[in-house]
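Q: Protein A?
A:
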Amino acid sequence: MSNQQNYPVGTPGTPWGESEKQEWYARQRVQRPYAGEVLAQLQPLAERFDLVQYGVLPIDPERYPLFAARSRDWTAAKPCVLVTGGVHGYETSGVQGALRFLQTEAERYGEHFNLLVVPAISPWGYETINRWNPGAVDPNRSFYADSASPEAAALMALLESLDCEFQVHVDLHETTDTDNSEFRPALAARDGIEMAVWDIPDGFYLVGDTSCPAPEFQRAVVAAVEKVTHIAPADAGNRLIGEPLQQHGVINYQARELGLCMGLTEAPYRTTTEVYPDSERVDGENCIRAQVAAVTGALDYVLAVSGSGGETTPLR
């Protein structure tokens, strides 16, 4: 099945040029405040974490400073953990889940890990509830050298400046009904192609990295989240969003080849979460809690296998 919807920008079958991209940009509207919903939550955390401004967005540097939170007592003796949210700005629980993890859970892991949490990689996308950045570029297809995405380039520069090897990377995302109603039609229009559509999975699932699938790690994260919310069942073809199911609630992508944030590091334990906020079985709070459970489930698993003889007893 292909997405053949007429999109209000461009000519069907013809890739966009600069004028179409500018037309698309002119249609976008700010719908929520980055300063009020993200920066205001980060500011009080300065009492417990080191807040690092690692860049700005060139579209409006004063409006869009980029911040990360880093655990204190950062030492070479501890493994490093990266938690990222808001690569796709419209995916609300990714941003708010990263913030909630900092507010409620992160400190208790500081004894064991160097934590770096980047809650809102794409603040313009957060404000306009958008998948792309102002240049009609998907930041989560842009993690490569000489990136066309300032959002991706700034994060890559931050990680390079730290000069550390990450053991864990959890990238927080959502799959929404608007993926089929807006964002995939926009992609088809931008690139002048027909785009296959699929059923949006009703529930939480994970995307592992094909080059480093870590199935036991993925299984542990799913089990942790399942205590909070439901896991998406596969479709009739045993797939999720068009990809073969690897195990309960898990599919794999070629992260590095696709320029995904998940493929940014060489962490042996890496995953992308996908929450479904449009399900009748959840609300916004449940989605945020699911993201936090994914992060804590990941860290509890790594702690268990590295220091508790392989048992999976959560850190409490």
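Q: Protein B?
A:
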Amino acid sequence: MAHFDLPLPELRTYRSGTAEPDGFGDFWTRTLGEARAAAKPVELTEVATPLRGVTTYDVTFTGYAGQPIKAWLNVPAGASGPLPIAVEFIGYGGGRGRPLEWLLWNAAGYAHLVMDTRGQGGNWRGGDTPDPDADGAGPSSPGFLTRGVRSPETHYYRRLFTDAARAVETVAELPGVDTSKVVTTGKSQGGALSIAAAGLVPDRVAAVIAGVPFLCDIRRAVTVTDSFPFQEIVTFLRANADRAEQTFATLDHFDVVNLARRITAPALLSTALMDTVCPPSGVFAAFNEITSSKEIDVYDWDGHEGGRAFFDTKTLEFAAAHLLS
């Protein structure tokens, strides 16, 4: 894929034209308040694995509306003292998979909480968390972007963003963790959730890492790429042309550009100039809203793989600079 978006000098100054919806802050304050009011204590069960250097716990915490969300907690075996912790979110269609798929952060000396993604895990890395509110949300195209799109109240990502924020808050209930050293992290959808969680509970997050984040500048993304998942919105609007205004008004509540400006922690993002899944203009739109200290890695010749091990290395270096110094 050739470079298809704005030239890099224009990307570096690009700002989204999407306005923050009226009542946006109140919407999220109310949503998180309801989730906290319905919360139950976290459940941890140690799990036997073939891994000798890592201790694994099967975690259940409560997310949106007090609904149970699964996670893995991997901790370096024999670690002493409170550890910094990475809270990781998963890319589109994936679930938490198996514990041995998540060893990078443990190898670097961190505790690692991997949140399962409600209703996902059918495309890669199986999942274990249902989405109880998926039924009755009105028509949608296959996938998650238009599920419940008739209203912000019923949209799928209202539930998932809340789960992500609650995962960060759950850190306070985990043993052996330094709650002052929490990094949110993830790629693609996971990157969007990393930004969202850091914007929703900024006082709980010490660093933010988002690789090629999804859900950035949604209104523009659907006009510059033919790739899925953004094409789900186009598919839906072809069948429901009279619902375009309502659809985008709902999606504005889950455009992470509107949550990026609430981040207070140091942030590292990445983008790839050949990435048609998460166009670089969207990533820069989110990046340019962040007012805390920030860095962005740009990969000229990558698509959605977004830097691969090069960015993984930068991720650990960035986290160490802000959490281990």
